[in-house]
Specification:
- The protein has 224 residues and is mainly α.
- Helices cover 41% and strands 5% of the residues.
- It has eight helices and four strands.
- The radius of gyration is 19 Å and the shape is globular.
- The two termini are 25 Å apart.
Length: 224
């Protein structure tokens, strides 16, 4: 999960809120454009690419390619439904698939989270860990429960994707590390890898990039 730095909120959202109107009547095009830009085209929760590339049957059934997410849900928090800080962009979360396969906002539904990836006071990246088998987890019991029970981020599909990414980064940095002797040189190699993972390419982050960042930070800490 990646920390999100919010842009200035869209003018259309400010104007809509000033009219004391509600979220459902909002023209969401400008809002969606702003959200996808500030997130670098990755889901606010699972970090997959958004918009989701739909399969033909998903197109035929009008499945969404992404969803505007309320971190604090609308039904319980009407005062926040037009609050830009409370709005993120999520993948379609396997919309239309069986419940056990759904993830992110689609699985979350009308539940609240105790954390917000756009919270400047608490960097979510400091709370999230990844294992070599693709599991996402947290030492914070509340966050860990929400990762599993509210967002369902440890489905087999997601774990498999994360495992491949984790092991790919691991093999690459081990291979480069063997060619570069000395702690200072290895640290610079790790920093170069991190910069590559966090580089925006045509406005887009690499999907699942924070798995690599987590692993590289672990390797760096062992050199200290």
């Amino acid at each position: 999960m990646k920390q999100i730095t919010k842009n200035n909120e869209p003018r259309a959202l400010i104007q809509h809120r000033a009219q004391k109107d509600n979220y459902d009547n909002l023209n969401k095009n400008e809002l969606r454009d702003s959200l996808i830009e500030e997130q670098g085209h990755i889901c606010c929760y699972c970090m997959c690419r958004i918009p989701h590339k739909l399969k033909q049957h998903e197109i035929d059934n009008n499945y969404p390619d992404s969803k505007i997410e309320h971190v604090k849900c609308q039904s319980k928090n009407r005062n926040l439904e037009l609050n830009y800080h409370n709005l993120l962009l999520a993948c379609n979360g396997r919309h239309g698939y069986p419940r056990q396969m759904q993830t992110c906002d689609t699985f979350k539904g009308e539940n609240d989270l105790s954390f917000n990836p756009a919270d400047n006071a608490k960097n979510i990246e400091d709370c999230i860990k990844y294992s070599a088998n693709g599991e996402i987890y947290s030492d914070d019991e509340t966050i860990n429960r929400e990762l599993n029970e509210v967002l369902n981020l440890n489905t087999k599909d997601l774990k498999d994707i994360r495992e491949v990414f984790y092991k790919g980064i691991q093999e690459r940095i081990i291979r480069k590390g063997k060619r570069r002797q000395g702690k200072d040189i290895q640290k610079r190699t790790y920093e170069s890898e991190k910069q590559e993972l966090l580089m925006l390419k045509k406005g887009k982050y690499i999907p699942y990039c924070m798995i690599g960042i987590y692993l590289i930070n672990k390797k760096k800490n062992k050199l200290a």
